[in-house]
Amino acid sequence: MVTIENFGKEMCAVALIGKNLLTTPGLMGPMGDSFSEKGINIYSATPGKNRLTFFVDEKNREEAVKTAEEVSKTSSAIQNVEVEKSVGLVLVDLSDESWDIPGILGQLTGALSQSGINIIDISSSGPEIMLFVKYEDAKNASDMLEQIYA
């Protein structure tokens, strides 16, 4: 069984951009601490080789960007801060049986691609997958995936 849910909150993505951020210690903690002190919830943090992206409420975008810019001054590895406005989230919860199907992630992303929905980012923890899309596409994405997996 696969459960699909449109999270329904408008978020933004605030990304630290630089060189070799994946192997630079001390970036995640200061960002998390600073966001926490300002009451900003982090829905997801996704690391990449040269970028570290935090998904937070759109209503906190200005404060989150300001915080990221402050943290960026503490590391020479960070070159700039980028923001993606108006991000939505589709939550996918795979059952134990679905989790073992080879290519299940490809099926999910392929279905969205065929519908013209771009995936901004993907985060997962075991059988729970978070698909970040444009906020305006989130309902259509979740409805379409529900039809496929219902």
Can you lay out the helices and strands and say which pair or pack?
Elements: E1 2-6, E2 11-18, H1 28-37, E3 44-47, E4 51-57, H2 61-72, E5 78-94, H3 96-99, H4 104-114, E6 119-125, E7 128-134, H5 135-149
Antiparallel strand pairs: 1-5, 2-4, 2-5, 3-4, 5-7, 6-7
Helix pairs in contact: 1-2
Helix content: 25-40%
Q: Architecture of the largest domain in CATH?
A: 2-Layer Sandwich
From the alpha carbons, calculate the radius of gyration and give it in angstroms: 16 Å
CATH topology tier name of the largest domain? VC0802-like
Structural class by secondary-structure content: alpha+beta
Strand content: 35-45%
The main β sheet shows up as: 7 strands, antiparallel
User: Which regions have little confidence, pLDDT < 50, spanning 5+ residues?
Assistant: none
